[in-house]
Design brief:
About 55% of the residues lie in helices and about 10% in strands. It is mainly alpha-helical. It has one domain (about 1-85). The strands form 2 sheets. The protein has a two-stranded antiparallel sheet with strand order 1-4. β2 and β3 form a beta hairpin. α1 (about 1-25) packs antiparallel against α2. The chain is elongated.
Length: about 90
């Protein structure tokens, strides 16, 4: 469960990190309040949300089991745990 949460968090923070790198490359003060005007923060937030929503769409459509498959849950057989599978 932690991997999807970290993936979405990194995707959300990616535009902000890119902008901070841009500020560093242009030798602008990264922690100066004037370097982060509200219009830039709004643009970065919209870009972040687009990335996160795009990743939701991608993961929903292109990962997981193929359509029509049946999930067989994990079970105990002869005292051993047999992992779940799709058939």
């Amino acid at each position: 469960m932690i991997r999807p949460i970290l993936t979405e968090t990194v995707l959300f923070l990616l535009p902000f990190g890119g902008y901070a790198l841009y500020l560093l490359a242009t030798k602008t003060a990264v922690f100066d309040r004037a370097s982060w005007p509200p219009s830039v923060i709004a643009t970065l937030t919209i870009a972040s949300l687009i990335l996160v929503l795009g990743s939701f769409f991608y993961l929903a459509h292109f990962s997981g089991a193929p359509p029509g498959s049946t999930y067989v849950p994990a079970r105990m057989e002869d005292g051993r745990l047999v992992p779940g599978d799709t058939k």
